[in-house]
Amino acid sequence: MRAPEKFLSYVLLGGLLLALLVSGIGCGIFLWLHPDEIFDYRVFKAEPVDLTKLSKIILESFQGNSLQIMQLGILLLVATPIARVASCIVMFAYLKDYLYIFISILVLFILLASILLEPSLA
Amino acid sequence: MTAIEIFSILFSGSLLAGLIGALSGLGGGLIIVPLLVFGIHADIHYAIGTSLIAVIATSSGAASAYVREGFSNVRVGLLLETGTTFGAILGVIIGSHLPGSALHLAFGLVLLYSAIASLYGNGLPAFDLPPDKLATFFKLDGQYPIAKGYKAYHVQNVPLGYFIILIAGLLSGALGIGSGALKVLALDKAMKLPFKVSTTTSNFMIGVTAAASAGLYLHLGYIDPILTLPVLIGVTLGSLCGARILPRMKTDLLRKLFILLIVIIAIQMIYTGIF
After folding, report:
1. A107–B85 C-beta distance less than 8 A
2. What per-residue string of b and e applies to A108-121 under the rule 16 or more CB within 10 Å gives b?
């Protein structure tokens, strides 16, 4: 196997394991505290704003709020495809493949733009 | 339902979703939506948010192995991602003006047609075709592992593939789906990639497309941690297993599984469009 692809595959695996670890911890704490609590999802109510704001999620998960740790796990997972594109830039830089450095940067740019802009478009 | 019950049902169903999603390049959405709607009696909004995360989990779970073993064509994936991510932004804008039911119905009918077309032959695979000018310019040709060693292939019809991928991105943004079905079809039917390269390259791409829409659905409050976490963990583990099975799986069997799955998605989409 070639070195650049090895690098890419390790970055992918590392990010994924981190997301899994945080998710597992959040899930474990939550189930330990609320095993028999009843939840009903038949009627949709949007999640509380606290669970959708990045700064709140990070701050409160470090204070040990299990729902926020779970939400942090989800955010880390969402970050894995972003890391995938970013590490492609590194891989193609190593290969001196300028066309694909440009294409990877373009994808990363559109991806970040859509994550940040879409909430205000819809 | 108690938290433990929700976790157990979703976790076990998600293992299967991840396994099948990673093998077929379709993502975990097609099993996750019915699992939430019928298994947990959750509202469809929660099902959409959760399945979007499931798509990312499938993609990331298998991507590492597929890239390492040389199945995914990273250049094809990245080139087409410019189309899916851009299409997804357009889709979000269009989706808020167009009735979702019409889009679901149209998508369902397209898939049903592709499933039928897939049953009647597939033309030549790319390794028996001459190099294509545009594909050569973008350095898209590649090789992938077979039982003994590697086999080279020449990518075809880049513009048509790119156009289908743009539509796939548009549908992802408008409907909150990974649209792996259209991606595999574009790679397999239009660009003539070997089937395992098509499913694994689609797998590489769907996570990026889904991540582009994640900001929106998180903001809309569709993503509930109690529903999403067991799915995230289950799908990821299932997908890691799927990536181990793929190299040994017969291509013919994989193709049959794929056709069966797109018929199921087509029925789901048409059903959602009508009711």
Report:
1. yes
2. bebbbebbeebbee
